[in-house]
Structure formats: structure tokens, C-alpha cells
Design a protein that fits this description.
The chain has about 240 residues and is of the alpha/beta class. It is built from nine helices and ten strands. Strand 8 and strand 9 form a beta hairpin.
């Protein structure tokens, strides 16, 4: 098969109006090969939208899965973020976290569902995020279980606040979660300090399993980098689609 078909993509850029954030939020929507608006599609919502496309190569990955592995086509929604306020929006103790979560569930979701033929049932939505993007994705699932029961976490920053949030739940049997963490992620430098992400993910794993979460947890040699996550993304997407 000609490799060129993997790199063809249709990406539509939109601005989502919001009452919860300071300004409209840019998003990019990748339509699958053979897109037909009379059909309906599962939808993948990615935090750090620009990074998922540029460094995660999610559009190319999706095309390969569709053409080579007969995975059902999906629409990908990348939600862009201003890196200067990313921690405030994505970290549970951040000043903008509550507003961002409300924007995501109450404004972004209806915006996409009104304009694109995405399936609007909870088991046809997937949240995906790396690092703090994994954090906010998990919190969205915990806070809006009727909307987001499926999460992909690439080296999620599951630190103290997130572990406490998981511990507050009694039954997570409804939650399908794929967690990836690198064994070399023991000293990850962030705006908030240096953390042992490996230990944090192991602790979160115990809490999730104790609450019957449908969890697939993987530790692999790797650092806190897109080069590591990009290699693992195809298998994680395939498991949900």
C-alpha cells in the first residue's frame, strides 16, 4: 500500500465560544478517511491537541489503524491549550481547573455534537491526555461519569490531589482506563516541582483496582517524552476502537 494514504488528512479548525474561560478555545477536528456526514463515528477528545497531532502523530496513527488493521474510523478532536496557563487549567489545584472542566463537559461537547456526526453515547467517547492532560482527563471522567467512561492516560500526573479524588470514590467498575507509565519517570521536572511519576502511577493503580476499575496498566522502559508515548498510542487506541 502506498504510504501517502497514511499522511492524507482533513483537519478543520474551529473556535469554541465559552463562558467559563477568558476567550474562545481553538480546537482542531480530524475527519477520518472516507468521511461521510450521513454516517456516525466514535470520537476521541485529546488534551494538548496541537501536541497530539504534531508530536503524537495521532492522525497518521489513526489512518494506519483504519487501513492496515481494520479499526473503525473515528473523529479526533484536539483541544488546544496555551502552555502559559496549562498547569492552571489541567492541575486539580489550578485556578482555572474548574472552569476548564465545565467548558469541556458543558460547552465543547455540545459544540462538537451539534456540528459533526459523532456518536453521543458515553461508550463511544474516549478522552486522551499526556502528563497533566491525563490528569484532567481522569478528573473529567470521575466528575462526569455519564459522559466520559473511557480514558487513555500517557504518563498521567496522578499526584496527591488525584489520588485523593480516586480514593473518594467507592465503585469505579464503570470506568475503562488505559494507563502507561515509563520506568524511567522517577524524577520528572514540572512547574510545580520534581515528582516520581512512576510511584504516583503505581499508587493510583492500587486505588483504582481496589475500586474495581476496568484498568489496563502498563509499565515500560521510557521517559516523560512524546517519543515514548507516540510508540504506545496505536495499541491504546486500538483497544478502545
Amino acid at each position: 500500500m502506498d504510504d501517502a494514504i497514511y499522511y492524507k488528512r482533513t483537519i478543520v479548525k474551529e473556535l469554541v465560544p465559552t463562558a467559563y474561560l477568558s476567550e474562545s478555545r481553538p480546537i482542531r477536528i480530524c475527519l477520518p478517511p472516507g468521511y461521510n456526514e450521513v454516517l456516525s463515528y466514535p470520537v476521541i477528545y485529546c488534551q494538548d491537541g496541537e501536541d497530539f497531532f504534531n508530536f503524537g502523530r495521532i492522525a497518521t496513527t489513526m489512518n494506519r489503524l483504519i487501513f492496515d488493521e481494520d479499526v473503525q474510523p473515528a473523529i479526533i478532536v484536539g483541544v488546544d491549550v496555551d502552555k502559559s496557563v496549562r498547569t492552571s487549567e489541567y492541575a486539580p489545584e489550578g485556578d482555572l481547573f474548574a472552569g476548564y472542566c465545565r467548558f469541556f463537559a458543558e460547552e465543547l461537547l455540545p459544540f462538537v455534537e451539534e456540528r459533526y456526526p459523532v456518536r453521543d453515547t458515553r461508550d463511544e467517547r474516549i478522552l486522551a491526555g499526556d502528563s497533566l492532560g491525563g490528569t484532567v482527563s481522569l478528573h473529567l471522567a470521575l466528575d462526569y461519569p455519564s459522559l466520559f467512561p473511557q480514558v487513555i492516560s500517557l504518563s498521567g500526573a496522578f499526584l496527591k490531589e488525584t489520588q485523593e479524588r480516586i480514593a473518594a470514590e467507592s465503585d469505579l467498575s464503570w470506568l475503562k482506563l488505559r494507563m502507561l507509565i515509563g520506568t524511567e519517570e522517577t524524577e520528572v521536572r514540572t512547574e510545580r516541582g520534581t515528582f516520581d511519576f512512576l510511584e504516583a502511577n503505581r499508587n493510583a493503580k492500587k486505588l483504582l483496582e481496589a475500586r474495581s476499575c476496568a484498568l489496563v496498566y502498563e509499565e515500560k522502559p521510557g521517559k516523560h517524552l512524546w517519543g515514548f508515548w507516540q510508540q504506545e498510542l496505536p495499541g491504546m487506541l486500538k483497544s478502545f476502537l
